[in-house]
Specification:
- The structure is a single chain.
- This protein is mostly helical.
- It is built from 27 helices and no strands.
- The protein is elongated and about 120 Å long.
Length: 367
């Protein structure tokens, strides 16, 4: 056969003869190798081409061979793209999973992270979670359901990781409260805050309640069921903390009333109104009305289903300069058939308010 490269390339393009292709497969030339790898189905030729110095040729061998021995040989390839292609074959079920065990000993973090993305093999994950590269350990911690494959001892080891992001993501995803307990003492606030978000353990919440950070106090105020903690946080100078205390479903009625008695902030009063409407408490609502100077909040109270006649009269006194609020009081009084406020509003200076009373009142003495 002519030894010139151009002739050999021409021959390989023009033939489908497996014997000739096998002979030319030993020619370490990119064009010849790529032509043969696309034409042949001969596994012995693929095995030859696996020795090619060209990465693209070896990549195509990985894509086309069905021989597991050839694939296993290429798991030791120096090029990460070749190894990643083998991992794809494992992922789509056309290569043995045993390839992952071999590749999991690779040094390339990209290869290892790709393995992590497709495997649930406990032994592989346990080995890689101890890897020196942060990104490899993080891939396991952040991987979907990967942490659940790791036992408590392994996760407790991770809780001591030098990388704070790994510890924070561990706090977000761990399935062990014991791990959260460890991380609740972490030196980084972001880690401790994540513990607070994820834990269901009230003893951990109690520990975190001692922190002075406003964000943590807001979180604790939402999640704690400890009445002593709620009582303490109810006196916090941060309005957001007090709002969260007021919205906590475990809040004792007496604590909430204590908050309201000392509170003039619009946001807290709105919380109080919502709670009183949701669970009628006329005594507390009267206290809120006495503190409230916001017409919008008073409108909310007027429209509530649990409004009492005495509360309507209190609001009516505050509505002296606000005809819109007086009209709302008139409509509510008609709806609930409260005669005392209707009697007062029947003499209102505005005709449209008197009309509301005239059209809705049932007591003739009012008309």
């Amino acid at each position: 056969m002519d030894k010139s490269l151009s002739v050999r390339r021409k021959v390989v393009r023009s033939t489908n003869n497996e014997s000739i292709l096998k002979l030319l497969a030993s020619d370490d030339d990119y064009a010849i190798g790529m032509e043969i790898v696309q034409k042949t189905n001969d596994e012995s030729i693929f095995a030859q081409l696996a020795l090619s110095s060209d990465r693209d040729v070896r990549l195509n061998v990985v894509r086309r061979t069905q021989n597991q021995n050839t694939l296993e040989f290429l798991t030791k390839d120096k090029d990460p793209y070749v190894k990643e292609e083998i991992i794809r074959r494992v992922s789509n079920g056309t290569a043995n999973e045993s390839m992952l065990e071999i590749l999991s000993k690779d040094r390339d973090p990209h290869v290892l992270k790709m393995i992590i993305s497709i495997t649930d093999d406990k032994s592989i994950l346990e080995r890689l979670v101890m890897h020196h590269d942060d990104s490899v350990r993080l891939a396991i911690v952040m991987g979907h359901n990967k942490l659940k494959k790791l036992d408590l001892a392994t996760q407790e080891n991770l809780a001591k990781d030098q990388n704070s992001l790994i510890r924070e993501e561990l706090a977000r995803r761990t399935n062990f409260e014991q791990v959260l307990k460890m991380l609740s003492h972490d030196e980084y606030f972001s880690v401790r805050y994540m513990v607070g978000r994820m834990t269901h353990d009230q003893s951990i919440i109690s520990e975190l309640s001692l922190e002075e950070n406003d964000e943590m106090k807001e979180l604790v105020a939402k999640k704690t069921n400890d009445k002593n903690i709620l009582h303490r946080l109810a006196k916090d100078e941060n309005i957001s903390v007090r709002i969260n205390v007021a919205q906590n479903p475990n809040l004792d009625k007496n604590i909430f009333e204590e908050i309201i008695k000392k509170e003039t902030d619009y946001s807290i009063l709105r919380v109080g109104i919502v709670l009183c409407i949701r669970k009628p408490n006329s005594k507390l609502l009267e206290k809120i009305v006495s503190l409230c100077n916001s017409d919008d909040l008073l409108e909310d109270i007027v429209r509530s289903k649990s409004i009492t006649e005495s509360i309507l009269l209190m609001i009516l006194k505050k509505a002296e300069g606000n005809p819109r609020l007086r009209k709302s009081v008139a409509e509510s009084a008609v709806k609930h058939n409260y005669n005392s406020p209707l009697k007062i509003l029947s003499k209102d200076q505005y005709e449209y308010i008197r009309m509301v009373v005239a059209e809705g009142a049932t007591d003739e003495s009012i008309l």
